[in-house]
Write a structure and sequence with these properties.
Blueprint lengths: L11 H18 L5 H8 L3 H13 L3 E4 L3 E4 L1 H13 L1 H17 L2 E8 L2 E8 L14 E3 L4 H6 L5 H11 L7 H16 L2 E3 L7 E9 L5 E10 L5 H21 L8
Antiparallel strand pairs: 1-2, 3-4, 3-8, 4-5, 6-7, 7-8
Length: 260
Amino acid sequence: MSPSPSSKPTRTIPSQTLFRGLEIIDAVANGVTTLPAISEKTGINSSTAHRLASALVQIRYLKFEPRKGYSLGSKLIELGFLAYQQSNLPATARAHLEKLAMATQDTVHLAAFDDGEVAYLDKLPGQRAVEISSRIGGRKAVCSTGVGKALLLDKTEAEWRALFAHDHPQQSGSTAEEEWLALMRNYAHSGYAFDLGEDAPLIRCVAVPIRDASARIVAAVSVSSAAEYMNSERMTALIPVVQATAHSISTELGSRNDAG
C-alpha cells in the first residue's frame, strides 16, 4: 500500500545510525575492546559495528591499537574538558578562587576526580615568579597531587590501594605505599591534604575538598607555590584559609557541612 499524501517520511536510518554509534562508544567506555565483544554487547551485527567503529576512529571519538583494541578517543577527552569548563562549578567557584589567590599571592587550582585522574577545571596563577606545570583541561596522577589526595578523602582504603597501584605500579605493596596510606589516613581524619613534592620536587601544595548538597566530594581547591615560600609553618597556617574557601564554595553548592 502506498503512503497517503499526508504521510511524512521517517528518519529512522539516521537516528538508528546515531544511536548505534553511541551504543558502541558506551560499550568501549565500559571496557569492551574488541569488535566481536562490541557486536555481542550492543546487538549490532559485526559488519555494521566495524563500519561504525571505523568511522568513530576516523573522527577521534574512538582509538584503535593493534593487540589492544578499541579505547575512547581524544575527541571525547576534549569534549569532557569543555563540559567541565561549561559546568556551573567553575563559575560558582571563580570569585572565591580569585579572593584566595589575592590573599595568598600563590597559584590556586580547582580540580575534580575523573576516570582515576585529576582533571584541572580552573587555575589562577600566583603573583610570585613560580612555574606550576598544571593547566586548565590538563590531567595528572591523583596519588601524587595535593588536589588528588583531597579528592580521595572519602574513599575506602581498598580504593586508595587500587589507585596507588594504578599510579605507582612499581611501588605497589612496598614501604612507599604504606607510608602513602598512613598519610592518607591522617589527611582523611583532618579534612585536608598536602603535596610535599611528590608531583614536582620543588612545589608544595595545600588542598581541601569541596562538597555538594549531598556532602559528596565533587572537587578540590588548592594553593600551590615553590617550597621556598611554603615551609611547614606556612602550610599549616594555610589549612584554615583554604578550608574557608572550600567551605564557601560548598555552601554555594548547597552543602550544609563540608567536614569530612
